[in-house]
What we know:
Low-confidence stretches: none
Radius of gyration: 18 Å
Structural class: alpha/beta
Helix content: 40-55%
Shape: globular
Mean pLDDT: 92
Amino acid sequence: MIDLHVHSTFSxxxxxxxxxxxxxxxxxxxxxxxxxxxxxxxxxRFIAAAAxxxxxxxxxxxxxxDSPSGSMHILGYDLDPAAKMLNEQLEHIRKSRAxxxxxxxxxxxxxxxHLTMNEIQSQAGEDIVGRLHFARALQVRGYVQTTDEAFGxxxxxxxxxxxxxxxxxxxxxxxxxxxxxxxxVLAHPFTxxxxxxxxDALVGELxxxxxxxxxxxxxxxxxxxxxxxxxxxAKHNLAVTGGTDFHGASxxxxxxxxxxxxxxxxxxxxxxxxxxxxx
Length: 279
């Protein structure tokens, strides 16, 4: 059993790369992929720890891409963390994220929700500050009861404290991953908030750009959704992948390897995906 969608303290997860691998071993997993948001900062440690342990570590990333509706995330697997274009693009994204964070902080303060960037940073890990860290800081201050409430009232798109940031085009995101030697996968397609014909058309377009796989097995996908996405993957000759989107204590209901308890991602899906690197 494997988990191909995992986050560490280098984005918005609560566990370090080493702790993730230790927990994966305890859970009986054979492989996990570290896919931090817009960051490869934890991959050097992740690869080193995996080499010294029993769980196979797949270096990855999760990037945000521009989308006509909802939100689009593209996962990159088995890539070179030192690739030049990858790091240049991620640096642009990080700068844009920092500017966005200043906008969010300004908006919150203007709403009478007084926070400092030091408070936000204290909720983050080694690298990237994101909206989840704002949500936690709001919760610590007692402005909201839960992080979900923080997003629902202030931080989600369209809410009063929201700030926009740079997102790559899907074509640039896929190209960046491929030029780093990796394979690109469309994450949790339901977040695109598209009807079936539009999603079908988009996935076909992305496949033409070099998309290699579709994240079919995911905690929020029910049996009907999984069946639908399997058909979609088959239609566009895409590999089927899966993962929990594990964040640790940040989203405690999601457990590594099993999601809400019933997710099972077979080992063979990883090898079938990585075969796409040479096809």
